[in-house]
Amino acid sequence: MNTNTNKLKLVIVGHVDHGKSTLVGRILHETGALPEGKVEAVKAMSEKRGMPFEWAFVIDSMQAERDQGITIDTTQIRFKTAAREYLLIDAPGHKQFLKNMVSGAAGADAVVLVVDAHEGVQDQTRRHAYLLRLLGIRRIIVAINKMDLAGYGEERYQEVRREVAAYLRSIGVNAIDITFLPIAAREGANIRERSAAMPWYEGPTLLEALDAVPQPVAATDLPLRLTVQDVYKFDERRIIAGRIESGSLHVGDTLLFSPINATARVASIESWNAAQPAKAGVGQSVGITLDEDIFVERGHVASHVHSAPVVSNVFRANLFWLGRSALVPGAQYRLRRGAAETPAVIERIDRVVDTNTLASGPGDKVEWNGVAEVTVRTRGLLALDHHADNALTGRFVLVDGHQIVGGGTASTEDYPDQRRDAAPKGTNLFHVRHRVAAEDRARMNGHRGGILWFTGLSGAGKSTLAVELERRLFAKGYQTFLLDGDNARQGLNADLGFSPQERAENIRRIGEVSALFAEAGMIVISAFISPYRVDRDRIRATHGEYFHEVHISAPLHVCEARDTKGLYRRARAGEVKDFTGISAPYEAPVAPELEIKSGEWTTERCLAALVDYVEEHLAYRPAKIRAVV
Ligand code: GDP
Description:
Elongation Factor Tu (Ef-tu), domain 3; six-stranded antiparallel barrel; 26 strands; 26% helix
């Protein structure tokens, strides 16, 4: 069982001097969380120094004890009600507070926004509220404090309440729940006990309001996100250590690693104990082994195949700037998302937001504690989520040297997922209108452009024939170019693995590149096993005018006998998985434009047939002009 189930993480924010520390001291007192005699001791100390007692001193003295290492827990204050335990993350006014909030080190479940009844909404009230919006905190309690200074009157309370509500509404805080209540922290009014001074108020006390916040659901129902922290080698096994940020995984699940886009199955979940668990869930740090050796490293994110994060190197973000010097576009930072880190630039400041007036507009810099909408471009591809989908994996921090200088939430809507949206979308692509017609190119070259798509089993002779055909056609004056599987895998498709989806994508891209060559007027010879009929048919469907399917056909036993690369032997020995012809089927073309029986024919005959085909189908013949009689 998760030990966190009955704990609520709380943060207290608000303008300076509006009473945050006082409220914390008072809450601790009211819930009996303070050490015996603490208040008396602090009172006596204040008296001795001739100062009025402050609840904040209680916190300060606890802080001092912590600094001396007397209390073990360093930054977190706990208290308990009959209903549950609370964890107050970070002391109010702590100088790292905003950084902790922004970096997500402090993932608060609920927040108390303290507003002075006398002063009303102030600068930091707005700033902090804006931050809550950015962080997507959904449960907000607005405590309108120092009601004693307002004579405990309802009128002023309503006034401030309206002011706060209007601000929250204007910035679009989409909290599920906002509770307002009048308190006097110093006097303990409406903290635990209902205050007799405010009989007009009928709502809950502060502690009642806190207890009414539902226990947050662990992010198990969100898609799996496992951030890889490290990869260890133990004997012959590689153990991938990571933290499950959301969702859960089981032994046997196929995991997709982003941004490398490689899949493998979970072979085991490691454990120091004898029994290996069959599943692991959110919040757990786990070590897993995979059934395949894929290149995984720190910062990669594992998900299930059909609920993968977005992979991109450009996205929009709401940014909270914490740097002492202003943020300027073009400056280089390091961006951290989970355990991933990559150089990044703020490409553009889209809007600078004045949290006081909420005026927003173009700007060329963002000052300390400022908020802006920006466009971020990272050097490497990054796996991340749209913040609204997953608040944990949709946020990032910017680091300069050793300092966190900003934090933000990612919005990936405006930019395509470079993996999932790899297929062009017809709607927003505009075909360039060339001023050189295909006919002009054909006349100039003496032939039309086209794709000779060589498909066939490994060992059927695709490469051998393709290389020689390229040479012969070139010698005859054809503009020709050979695209070969191995070369494309090293460059254009270096990011792709060998899962069925990736094989399909590999072929799709080659098809597109081939079509561009053909459009440019060349005869491109594309030699790829391309085992799946559907992948080849897709190229035919989109680029039918250029597509000539050439089946280089030889029976399996012939291919195997010619197996120069040793692939068949290794596939049989189980060293090469998913090898076409053995463990994966090869789907031969049904009606290819040309069949080259490389198993029966001599190489010379194969080449002659290919050259003939080209001369017959691609050599330029001007469109016929009918003689007028
Ligand atoms: P923080 O900066 O938000 O942590 O504010 P503090 O808790 O230090 O409070 C600032 C000042 O307001 C202190 O002098 C407190 O005694 C005073 N204060 C806090 N709560 C109340 C209250 O309910 N009534 C009155 N009159 N003063 C309060």
